[in-house]
Amino acid sequence: MSARDESPVPPTRQDEVAAAASELIGGPLGKRALTGGSWWNPVRIVALVALGVFALGMVQKLPCYNEAWFFGQGAQYVHACYSDIPHLYVGRGFHEGAVPYRDSIADYSHGMKYLEYPVLTGLFMQVAAWLTPDSAVLMHEQQMYWLVNAGMLMACTALLVVCVARTHRRRPWDALLVALAPAFALTATINWDLLAVALTAAAMLMWSRSRPLAFGVLLGLATAAKLYPLLLLGPLLVLCWRAGRLREWGIALAGAAGSWALVNLPVMLYAWEGWTKFYTFSQERPVDFGSVWLIISQRTGSPLENANTYGTALMLLGCAAIATLALAAPRRPRFAQLAFLVVALFVLTNKVYSPQYVLWLIPLAALARPRWRDFLIWQSCEVVYYLGIWYYLAYTSGGENKQGLPPEVYQLTIAVHVLGTLYLCALVVRDALRPHLDRVRQDGSDDPSGGVLDGAPDRFSLAQPARRAAGQQPGTPSPPGPDRATADRASG
């Protein structure tokens, strides 16, 4: 890896959208500006911004907090402020002291029902229930339960943005993409996904510091809260294979397996049937909101009972394509790039896309492609979908008084979400195939979030024949990026 300036990269010097937006606070940072020695460092500023945006998201839920969660099913959709949290406080028996996984709850549409969340998320929900004060009015308890959860999710938000800000040592300001993401503010308190998102970000920070065991432990905990973090081990395996770092990957795998088992085994032994509910529910769940399968199902009138098979086949084909990209790209792709691609692939092929799933992708997108224009284009598509699903539910729950979006228009909002995600994926792939366009590498970096992969020479690569033809030996490191002026011209 070439020598380079280690000072933080001001986004206003690299990003035209950031530079234009900075006019609201006095314009871009000057060349002679002093940026060191102040308490207001980038990490603290980003964290405070994220907490402020999180609070604005709470304010957006105010119509529901006051009444829409409790009086009139359609109102929470019309105001686009729905949250699972107050409903599941009652629906999963927390208000009656039910213990997750041990106690089943009567559900009028499904008979007896166990909590359908992974163990660490169930613990998070239970701790919030313990902290919720009793009240003679159930509605007040539900409101307090949502507030307690919001406070705990706010702590997850702080952890998330601090980890993202510190993952790329020279690019802490990229975490502003997370802090200011519109879809982040709108979806942060719909469900408990931020717990897994924060733990995944902490894991990636540990990997960037060349600590594979800590990475594995945190990733295992994240997988105990939500299944998607497990996907990151796939692209990491291929990158470690290309770099000859399989030992570190094995350590990470062992740490992940150990921490996951430590959390899950007690519940598996104590309440097997309740523990399996999450996995059986995920397998048996029919085609649902937000997926391309729903568009096909509604258009054809078929329930698509084989959607699991179709989705799995597409996921495997996509993973094979990502592995080929990792091995055949002229320069080894960055870990964050492949992590974003594999999670985006899972989102696009899954049979359900809940609006809060965008939280999985936001920090990965900020690390994979920190460019404001493209990030905001994608976020605009996600906001369109966010509004689309609630207005569609308002339409379907309105009875004779129809208000909201009919199925045909809702299908368009799904298509907008899918196209927006594919757009960002295409740009990440382009950056991997044409590394001189990758903004993160324009200072000569290799993979700042890659830990032991950063600057490591290739040991195996499908691109080696081309490199031999160019006169390079197979064991040499990936070629450094172009100088700053050349890269700036190439990126437009």
TrEMBL record:
Residues passing through the membrane, by range: 39-59, 114-132, 144-165, 177-207, 213-239, 251-272, 309-328, 335-353
Record's subcellular location: Cell membrane
Membrane topology: Multi-pass membrane protein
Keyword vocabulary terms for this entry: Cell membrane, Membrane, Transferase, Transmembrane, Transmembrane helix
Major localization class: membrane
Pfam family, one: GT87
UniProt region (Disordered), positions on chain: 439-458, 463-492
Coiled-coil stretches noted in the UniProt entry, renumbered to this chain: none
Name of the protein in its database record: DUF2029 domain-containing protein
Bias kind Low complexity: ranges: 463-475
Family per record: Belongs to the glycosyltransferase 87 family.
